[in-house]
Amino acid sequence: MYGRPGVSRASVALVSRRHVFDLLVTMPRKRTAARDQNEVSAKMVKSNQEDEIDGATGAHLWQDGVNAMGDAASAIAPATTSNVTTPSSGGIADRFLSELVAPFNRDVAGMEFGKPVEYVYNPLEYASEPHEDYIRKYCNSTKDILFLGMNPGPFGMAQNGVPFGEHDSVVNFLGITGNVGKPPKEHPKRQIVGLSCDRKEVSGSRFWGLWKTLCGTPEAFFRHAFVYNHCSLVFMSETGKNITPADMLVGARKELVELCDTFICKMVQLLEAKVVVGIGKFAEERAKRALQAGGVEGVRVVTIMHPSPINPAANKGWDQAVTKQLVELDLLQYFKK
């Protein structure tokens, strides 16, 4: 059993310049039944890299819009001292689902985003079974470190409800199971096939591949860490193009970002996280703003390089670069086999 090593206050240079906004998700009002997923898997379009590039076209605009509108204080849930170490139907996992996920689903279901948004996917609902399996297996204790991504990728969390949820990693490394339904309004070019999705998502493959190399098992990684996203929704236009909050109506954008920021604050306090690691600069900046606005103190916020292929530096040895960053951040000690 690993101990809980101390955390250095060392600061690091911000590495990532561009990030993926691979969002692809429509929010249902209730869980839908699982469909025959194999018959549509052949309709997935073009290459993964093209889809990741398409998803990244407005990531910097999201941050510009967020910076311009400022932040509102967040309502923070009380922290817990539970330290369950095995999958459980109670404790932190139950609180995560009931105090964070359920209110988020309820609140976004009532939002109106207006043009140009035509499709909104919410995998926390239509992929609620594998998402809940992920939470119950790996979010059942307090965590020293929270890794924070930006949004679901088209062949990752959008398909199965698991952050950075590349199929092979989700099924064969994390051991996630569960039926996946359909969004109530699905774009024909962005179909959901759940755990039958055989498209490779580069970001997820790189991300979970690193922890498999460093830790060996999911349990070794999740002993001290957890992974989630700032926002679990993605928005699309009539043509299936990804829409960033910067392209939305100002009121809808402001309400959405404040809701996601509140989620972060509640998650950090529930997990009693000491360090938030933004996977890319956007997530790091969003975490800093959210925690400051929510009055959450004493949490160190840093960043690692985003694994997306749209980031040129990530294509030149992402594993090695991030391992070096973990050493510099004094965090590698948490992730030893």
TrEMBL record:
It is found in: Nucleus. It comes from the Eukaryota. Pfam families: UDG. Its main location: nucleus. One of its GO terms (molecular function) is DNA binding. GO terms for cellular component: nucleus. One of its GO terms (biological process) is base-excision repair. CDD domains: UDG-F3_SMUG1-like. Keywords: DNA damage, DNA repair, DNA-binding, Hydrolase, Nucleus. InterPro entries: SMUG1, Uracil-DNA_glycosylase-like, Uracil-DNA_glycosylase-like_sf. Residues 137-314 form the Uracil-DNA glycosylase-like domain. The keyword Aminoacyl-tRNA synthetase does not apply. Belongs to the uracil-DNA glycosylase (UDG) superfamily. SMUG1 family. This is Single-strand selective monofunctional uracil DNA glycosylase-like isoform X1. It comes from Acanthaster planci (Crown-of-thorns starfish).
